[in-house]
Amino acid sequence: MTAIPTRLALSLAAAAVLTTGCGLGAELDREADPARTGAGARPKPSVTAAPAEPPITGPRPGASPAPTGPQGCPSTGVRVTTGMVNAAMGLRSMPVTLTNCGVREQRLNGYPDVRVRDVNRARMDVTVLKGPEPITRLDDPGPHPVTLKPGESARSVFVWRYSAVDAASLRGSGVYVEIGPAAGAERQTVEPEGGLDIGETGLLGTTAWQKVVD
């Protein structure tokens, strides 16, 4: 299992480091400078069918302001946060971090469970993909067991293409994003800075959870 760094820089180069490969970095470069030469074509990564994802132990599914325990940790024992959106032309990427803030081990195996909602909290017609394609070529570790001890974190990268968003009404913007560790586990609602400018219909790619190693 390939480790990834613990924080993102604000530059496009950091996006390449975050994803443990240069797939997204090369894609962002091509978006910013489509006339560049000498950029070799990367082979399309193989896609492995995702096995059934056993949910981690937690309360019933559903997004809600999770009750908090000691030191503000949700009762599920995990906390979900989002990082800064990296953008080049129409391509977007955003890191999502899940931290074990509880006292017991947490186990992951696969992709986050995601729903996107608009400014009125109505669910948007967004198709969430297990993997980054066909949105972009990006290294994806695929489903694999991840065990998080208290204090440890795992990360996924969300990618999408810009679609029309009304700046005044925020129509087409994913203002609220519900993210769970796996299908069937409780989701937490986060508000990414600037929202997801994904449009009222669109595709949202995700990479499988991968452990963050200091």
Structure description:
This protein has 214 residues and is mostly beta strands. It has one domain: Immunoglobulin-like. It is built from 2 helices and 13 strands. It has helices spanning 12-18, 23-32, and strands at 62-63, 78-82, 86-88, 91-100, 106-108, 113-117, 125-130, 146-148, 153-161, 176-180, 186-190, 201-206, 210-211. The strands form 3 sheets. Strands 2, 3, 4, 7, 9, 12 and 13 form a 7-stranded mixed beta sheet that branches. The protein has a 4-stranded mixed beta sheet with strand order 1-11-10-6, with no helix packed on it. Strands 5-8 form a two-stranded antiparallel ribbon. Helix 1 runs antiparallel to helix 2 (23-32).
How is this structure best summarized?
8% of the residues lie in helices and 30% in strands. The chain has helices at residues 12-18, 23-32; strands at 62-63, 78-82, 86-88, 91-100, 106-108, 113-117, 125-130, 146-148, 153-161, 176-180, 186-190, 201-206, 210-211. Helix 1 packs antiparallel against helix 2.
- In sequence order, what are the helices and strands, one letter per element? HHEEEEEEEEEEEEE
How does CATH name the architecture? Sandwich
End-to-end gap: 14 Å
Low-confidence stretches: 1-22, 37-69
| The CATH top-level class label | Mainly Beta
- Secondary-structure content class: mainly beta
The proportion of strand residues reads 25-35%
Overall pLDDT: 78
Number of domains: 1
Q: What would you call the shape?
A: globular
Radius of gyration: 17 Å
Count of distinct strands: 13
CATH superfamily: Immunoglobulins
The oligomeric status of these chains comes to single chain
Question: What's the CATH topology name?
Answer: Immunoglobulin-like
